[in-house]
Amino acid sequence: xxxxxxxxxxxxxxxxxxxxxxxxxxxxxxxxxxxxxxxxxxxxxxxxxxxxxxxxxxxxxxxxxxxxxxxxxxxxxxxxxxxxxxxxxxxxxxxxxxxxxxxxxxxxxxxxxxxxxxxxxxxxxxxxxxxxxxxxxxxxxxxxxxxxxxxxxxxxxxxxxxxxxxxxxxxxxxxxxxxxxxxxxxxxxxxxxxxxxxxxxxxxxxxxxxxxxxxxxxxxxxxxxxxxxxxxxxxxxxxxxxxxxxxxxxxxxxxxxxxxxxxxxxxxxxxxxxxxxxxxxxxxxxxxxxxxxxxxxxxxxxxxxxxxxxxxxxxxxxxxxxxxxxxxxxxxxxxxxxxxxxxxxxxxxxxxxxxxxxxxxxxxxxxxxxxxxxxxxxxxxxxxxxxxxxxxxxxxxxxxxxxxxxxxxxxxxxxxxxxxxxxxxxxxxxxxxxxxxxxxxxxxxxxxxxxxxxxxxxxxxxxxxxxxxxxxxxx
Length: 475
Prior knowledge:
The chain is mainly β. The chain is 1% helix and 37% strand.
């Protein structure tokens, strides 16, 4: 039985529960004690391309001295073999699957769009690029259209959400219409379709993408997905993770060509919260801390890489209407905010859920890495052993992992194995071999992300040297 404490308030005796110290759960010192083992799959890296050196617009430099802040490389949906590369600092490049020298397709620093990467160069800037599936289809509404996710000063426009809370910057989705989709240099027009206020410098907009498995006539064809974090700061100070009145901490889904009247975009009628009181209709899934990266497999399955606070990095399967639990859950564990009366940052044993959460299909703790950065299901042919495995990276340590995608089950985390990577016949870690000085802690930072081509082959992008290397089998 709990003890009680009687206190006298304005002459009235009030009996209050006194939480016995022993009733408070202890933090988990090592949430996932099992160590990730090296797998049997070994690969090497082959030089592919290098983008030009860029500089942060804010000086003196606020973060590490990356050669180029390259974020993603993705194929254009036009059968051309062209690949698009975005640098957070502003340039968007085109190369091709033959490894042609990257050329600037569009430099957002030179456009009249109030672009800025100066708030926090590690995350603000050109966060993502997505080409409409009809980009090369003359006569269709999406012909010549592509989209960018970028950062803008707070006073540059009126936000759809959190305009009064845009203390730091704003995240913007722009639609661009090319006058010549075949050209490797953009000319055309742009319009703003979505804007979100950001109270802090990080955990803003991330990946934008279309589902490649959707075909013309499908409800998901041409619907644009975008990931948003909780707005920054530690431990979700404004509790956006579980707030639903704005699409923060969410994957949002909109119809970029479906706006009626003055609306810049449409709301898909099959979005899970359309017509639900207290929910922004753009929300497709929510409860994510910083899902900077997500990707689609060829069957349309979405894999979400959610960066944790100080304990757990997780992989979730995208499910319409899902709540992934942040800030009351981190991975398959409870946070202090999911329990109360305990200190934040450690995780705790999970109490019985009082509402439904979707839990990760894989997770690792900070004994193994610091921040999950990107991942794709390998659908290439050059490394048969990796076929059908989800390959993902830790951006800081440079470790590369994989899981089998067969029979993944939420709340039953899959076994993670580490990919072996050889350089000139010697197995090495990416941070050691290709990293650059880390301004946040000792040692090198890998600055590692993944790219993919139209054949499903994977590429390593490293910010320290601005190079992209193709993952190939060891000969």
